[in-house]
Amino acid sequence: MGLKEKIGIERALAKLAAFQCRHYKKIIVLSLLITVILGYGATGLHFQGDIAKEMPQDLPVFALQDMIESEFKGEEFMIIAVCLDRETGAKDIPRDVRDPKVIASVVELHERLEAESSIEKVQSVATHFQHGVPEDMAGVKKKLTSVNNTGRFFNDDFSIMLVYASPIAGLSEEKVKAVTDMIQKDVDTITKPAGVEYKITGMAPLINELLRLMRKDMVFTTLVAAIIIFMLLALLERSLTKGFLVFLPLIFAIIWTFGTMGLLGIPISLSTVIVGAVIIGLGVEYGIFMVSRYYEERERQASAESLKIAITNIGFSTFGSAATTAAAFFALTLSAMPMIQDLGQTLALGIIYCWIAAVIVNPCFIVFEERIEAKKIVGLLQKWIRNER
Asked: Which domain does 179 fall in, by range?
């Protein structure tokens, strides 16, 4: 950066400091209004748990894979695994899923699932026992060997039997959860032999569970990072108020980042789920430098002059840091992987928002807090003078 550009930025920051000192209340109101708007935008955040959708779909290999899947698979199944617990010591439990009691249980489940409006198709061995289940194992085995393609429902040692349920096309995340709960309710209703467990799996439930874990991890990691950093700031500054003033830009940056993601349609995926904690960790230095420099100058300067020095010096130096960091993150958008592109955009926005909040918004809160404290002190002095009289 040349000398002229440096002087130009410093002059702009000096004018910004003068404007902030005169109109700090208006800037605070405007920043809160923007935060409310972007906070509402954050309600539009959507989570992407399907890794396949995070792949570059325009590349030939992925396009061919999609074509093959649509041509030969055609539908997604939810799988109910009927499993034997061979470790239990209970008596009269089945030792083979071809036991008539287990088959009868599967027939009952098959009929219940077929009656559900949200299930398009059910596949299981039950279709071969529509006229009744034999009374002994030999009869069941004979029936199964007399028909083709029943082996796909069993594992090699006949300890697991599968039931395939195909939900209607186009189920959303909420509807997948509803279908999973519905299947679980049907499983709980049927007559199950002792020592037999019914477990629901499949791609849709797995994605649903992954989305739940992503939400939990995003909230948990962001809150843990926020709490730890706020406690450290309060200890370093030896004041809860100063610690909060340092931490305040991070609050704005997190809300603004998530709000922008919601408005732009950037999903929370396996890569972007970490952005909250990362932004807090990377952006905290801007607030530290700004608050520390202001109070350092405040010991020997007036408020307006201290603000001018802090914003001019710290604002300029952190501008270079924020610009280079954001540029590096924006470079990730050149990746062929959509999830890496989203991560780069999100982190770059987060760093930019951290700088804006620390240099433009936070000084107004510093001035506001200082003047409130001054009024309190003046009020206490006036009260003390009246009492002395």
From this structure: 76-207
For residue 176 the two structure tokens come to 């997948």
What is the amino acid identity at position 112? Answer: R
Tokens in use for 27? Answer: 């800037």
Tell me the whole-structure pTM to 2 decimals.
0.74
Q: How many other CB atoms are there within 10 angstroms of residue 79's CB atom?
A: 15
> Does a structural domain hold residue 136?
yes
Closest CA to 369 of 243, 255, 273: 243
CA distances from residue 56 to 47, 60, 61, 63, 377 in whole angstroms, order as listed: 18, 9, 9, 9, 62
CA gap 354, 315 in Å, rounded: 12
Tens digit of pLDDT at every position of the chain (389 positions): 555 555 667 788 888 878 888 888 899 999 999 999 999 988 888 777 666 666 666 666 656 666 655 554 445 678 888 888 766 555 667 888 888 888 888 888 898 888 888 788 888 888 888 778 888 888 888 888 887 777 788 888 888 889 888 876 555 566 777 788 888 888 888 888 888 888 888 777 777 777 788 888 888 988 999 999 999 988 888 888 888 888 999 999 999 999 999 898 888 887 788 888 889 988 888 888 888 888 888 888 887 888 888 888 888 888 888 899 999 999 988 887 888 888 899 999 999 999 999 999 998 888 888 777 766 655 555 555 566 55
The CATH number that applies at residue 86 is: 3.30.70.1440
Alpha-carbon torsion angle 278, 281, 287, 292, nearest 10: -170
Tokens of 349: 């926005």
Domain total for the chain?
Answer: 2
In a domain, 366, yes or no: yes
CB-based contact 281:350 (threshold 8 Å) = no
